[in-house]
Amino acid sequence: MKVLKRVLKWITGAILVLLLVGFLMGFIAYWRSTNDCGKAGAPTNPMKAIVYCDYGVANLKLEEIEKPAPSDDQILVRVRAASINPYDWHFVEGTPYVMRAMGVGLRKPKDTRLGVDFAGTVEAVGKNVTQFKPGDEVFGGRGGAFAQYVCPRATRAVALKPANVSFEEAASVNIAAITALQALRDKGKVQPGQKVLINGASGGVGTFAVQIAKSLGADVTGVCSTRNVDLVKSLGADHVIDYTKEDFTKGAERYDVMLDNVGNHSLSECKGVLTPTGKYVLIGGGGASDQGFLGGLGKALWAMVFSKFVNQQMGMMMADANHNDLTILADMMQSGKLKPVIDRAYKLDQVPDAIRYVEEGHARGKVVISVD
Ligand SMILES: NC(=O)c1ccc[n+]([C@@H]2O[C@H](COP(=O)([O-])OP(=O)(O)OC[C@H]3O[C@@H](n4cnc5c(N)ncnc54)[C@H](OP(=O)(O)O)[C@@H]3O)[C@@H](O)[C@H]2O)c1
Predict the structure, then answer these.
(1) Considering only CA atoms, which residue is closest to atom 47 of ligand 1?
(2) How far is the CA of 256 from the centre of ligand 1 (A)?
(3) What is the Cα–Cα distance from 113 to 190, expressed in whole angstroms?
(4) What pLDDT score does 243 carry?
(5) What is the Cα–Cα distance from 242 to 227, expressed in whole angstroms?
(6) 84 C-beta closer than 6 A to ligand 1
(7) Strands 219-224 and 239-242
(8) Contacting residues for 287 by C-beta, under 8 A, at least 6 apart
(9) Cα-trace Rg, the chain
(10) Is residue 205 in contact with ligand 1, taking CB distance under 6 Å?
(11) 202: Cβ–Cβ under 8 A, 6 or more apart, which residues?
(12) What is the pLDDT of residue 33?
C-alpha cells in the first residue's frame, strides 16, 4: 500500500512538473514570438503594401516596403486589383487561436503581409519562365496580394485573364471560385440532374457555387436572406430558400449534395436533408467574433467522427489553388458561364474598411480592392 502511495505521489509530481515546464515553454514562446517589423531599413525600390505588425484590423497600415524582384521561376505582377476573403480576417485577427499555435505567430503575426487573391499585368519574368511574358494580364493567388506588386511562381496559382473580364472580376476568383469548383466537382462529385443545396448562396463562395453547380447540370437550391433572393435566382438557382422565413432542415426535400458555407446547423440536421447516398461538404462558417480556440475546425473534426457512423459522406474540404483550375474558371468566364458578383470596391488604403465589412458576414458576392 505504501509503495502504491509513493508511486502515485511520483506520478502526480511528474505530471505537475511536465505541466509547469509546458506552461513555462508556452509563456517563453509567446513572448519570444516576433516578426520583421522595424527591422528593414528604408526601401531602395519602394512599393506600397498593407502591413500588420500586431493582430487586429486597427493595426493594418499602408506602408512603403521593398518592391519584390522575381526569382528564376517567378513572374513580377503589377497588381491592378485584389479581393478579400474571410481567410484574410482569420490572419488579421489570428483566430481561431489554434492557428497561432500552428505557426501563424503566437503573440504577433509571423508574416506581416496580407491578402492572397490578385489580378494584374506581368512586368517581368524570371529566366526559367516560359508560360508568361511581360504585358500578359493574369490573375491568381499569392501571399501579400494587398500590394502594388507580387511575385507568384509561374507554375503555381496563376493563369491568363480572359480579355472580357475586368481586373476586379478576375481578382475575385482565386479562393472563392476554386473552393466552389473543387467542393462541387471533386468532393461532391455533382452529376447532371442531381439536387444540390448551397447554404450561404449569396456570399463569395456561394455566388460562384450556384453558377458552377448549374454548369454541372444540377438542380440547384440556394439558401440566403430576403434581400439576396433575387440575386441568387439571377445566378441560375432553380429554387431559393429565404432563411429568415424557412428552415431548410425542416423541409421535405432531400439533396444529393449539400455545400455548407455557413455551418449554422448541426451535422444531424444536415444529414437529415441528404439522400441515403448524399454528400455533405463543409466549407466553413462562424463569424469573426465567435472563433474561439478551434472555430469552424471543431465542426470539421466532429464531421470526421460523425461520418463514420452514417451512410452519407460528410466532411470538410480545403481548397487547393492551382493553375489548371484557374484556367478552367477563366474559360468559364470567357464563355459567359461564370460571372463574378462584385459587391463593393475599395482602394488599397481602405483595406481595413474592406476587411471590417467582410467580417460582418453579409457580403453579397465578392469585395474587391482596386490598386492604382
Ligand atoms: N474550406 C476552404 O477551403 C474555404 C475556402 C473559402 C472560404 N471558406 C470559408 O467558407 C465560408 C464562406 O466564405 P465566403 O467567402 O462565401 O464568405 P462571405 O462572402 O463572407 O459570405 C457571407 C454570406 O454568408 C451569408 N449568410 C450569413 N448567414 C447566413 C445564414 N444563416 N444562412 C445562409 N447564408 C448566410 C450572407 O448572406 P446574408 O447577408 O443574406 O445573411 C453572405 O452573403 C467562410 O467561413 C470561409 O472562411 C473556406
Answers:
(1) 86
(2) 21
(3) 37
(4) 98
(5) 9
(6) no
(7) parallel
(8) 359, 361
(9) 23
(10) yes
(11) 222, 224, 225, 228, 231, 232, 364, 365
(12) 73
Taking CA atoms only, the protein residue closest to ligand 1 atom 21 is 203
Asked whether 248 and 225 are in contact (CB, 8 A), the reply is no
Amino acid at 251: G
Closest CA to 181 of 215, 142, 138: 215
69-126 per-position pLDDT tens digit: 999 999 999 999 999 999 999 999 998 989 999 899 988 999 999 999 999 999 999 9
Other beta carbons less than 10 A from residue 137's beta carbon: 18
DSSP codes joined into one string, 225-250: -GGGHHHHHHTT-SEEEETTT--GGG
Query: For residue 4, which phi and psi values (nearest 5 degrees)?
Result: -60, -45
Do the beta carbons of residue 256 and residue 234 sit within 8 Å? Answer: no
DSSP state letter for 36:
S
Cα 58 to ligand 1 centroid, rounded to whole Å = 23
- Of the two residues 191 and 1, the one the predictor is more confident about is 191
* C-beta of 232 in contact with ligand 1 (< 6 A): no
Residue type at 294 in one-letter notation: L
Contact 178, 325 (CB under 8 A): yes
Q: H helices then E strands: how many in the chain?
A: 11, 15
Q: pTM of the entire structure?
A: 0.93
Pairwise CA distance, residues 216 & 95, whole Å? 35
17 C-alpha vs ligand 1 centroid, how far in Å? 44
**Which pLDDT value is given to residue 68?**
97
243 CA distance to ligand 1 middle (Å): 14
